Task: structure prediction
Amino acid sequence: MLVLARKKGQSVMIGRDIRIVVVEVAGETVRLGIEAPHQFEIFREEIYRELREENAGAVTEAEKVMKMFKR
Amino acid sequence: MEGAAGLTISFPWGLPGLDYYEFTLSLLEEGSPFYFLQSTSQPEVGLLLVNPFAIFKDYEFELAEETAGLLRISDQKQVAVLCTVNTSRGIESATVNLLAPIVINTEHLLAKQVVLNDRKYSLRTPLAINPGAGKGAR
Result:
């Protein structure tokens, strides 16, 4: 992994189109500003992981759902 | 929203965790807030969905301009919002994903699951389902 030191207000470019700015540093928390083309979805990683698990876990079959609602 | 039943909808950005991009959306029962989303390529892959506004009266979020653009939404009338329901732990322990609703353009048949920035909503909000009535209640 590439590791760079940045100060508040400084940024990092990824390619030509993605820019990540350090907006604020307060104790353990870093606030980042991200500029990227719309086709790039931006997620907090832990939420993205949880969402993947949640979607995969919610998969069911029509038959099961029908049974559930016919009770 | 009733008009969105029995439609083939594409999810060009997919659904995180699922590798399917086209689904059929149908209303579970007349008058019910529940829908079933079924993969067109893999019929055994489906998701139970619910109209969140029918159950959570205070539920609201602002659709990001970028998302509206991606879904080619130009009029609010084109928009439907449904949330996934997880019944894997049994119907008594059903939960609904209010943090990542599915936004559908019912006119262009495009949909995307969006992650809200609002920390008051959860991926697993308890949902009481009354199977007899086919309707959910808090």
Notes: The mean pLDDT of chain B is 90.
